[in-house]
Specification:
By secondary structure, the chain is mostly helical. Helices cover about 60% and strands about 0% of the residues. The protein has one domain. It is globular, with a radius of gyration of 16 Å.
Length: about 160
């Protein structure tokens, strides 16, 4: 039996899932270190952020913080949905999206929830387009979301070495 080719949106979502949620335990990964079968070693964005407290997240590293990077990553995912679904072309306060860079414990918990909600919003939007004709603007925007999240995940993982 011949399997149908993977839909482009599904392929993009697979990579976005790895960047945000980490690898599937015990399964090979595309670009992150593999998550072990017991679930340890997950280096996705959410697990990385959940492994830090508000003091670590607020620590200044060369003029930015993990909280600022996380806030910006969430903002970007929110903008992708607004841009693609709603046609909102801004203007967007990209510089301000990194602020504030310091957070309290409650603010850190809320920011981690915002990252999760922004990711869920991108996934829901992408799935809503699954049965529509393939659209280069949509797949381009979603691909941009993957690249952007992966970039900031890498920055955050490097910063973790300084704050841990």
């Amino acid at each position: 039996m011949t399997q149908a080719p993977q839909h482009p949106i599904d392929g993009i979502l697979d990579i976005l899932k790895e960047a945000v949620e980490g690898g599937t335990p015990g399964q090979p990964t595309s670009f992150l270190d593999g998550t072990r079968a017991d679930g340890s070693g997950n280096h996705g964005l959410i697990a990385t952020l959940d492994g830090l407290d508000d003091v670590q997240a607020s620590h200044d590293v060369n003029g930015t913080s993990i909280a600022g990077q996380a806030r910006h990553a969430a903002f970007h995912m929110e903008v992708i949905v607004r841009w693609e679904r709603d046609g909102d072309r801004g203007p967007f306060d990209w510089k301000g999206s990194f602020l504030p860079s310091q957070v309290s414990a409650d603010e850190w918990a809320a920011l981690r929830q915002r990252v999760r909600a922004a990711y869920d919003g991108v996934v829901a939007f992408a799935r809503s387009r699954r049965d529509a004709p393939v659209d280069g603007d949509v797949t381009g925007g979603l691909s941009g979301a993957v690249a952007h999240v992966a970039y900031h995940l890498g920055a955050i993982r490097q910063m973790v070495k300084t704050v841990s």
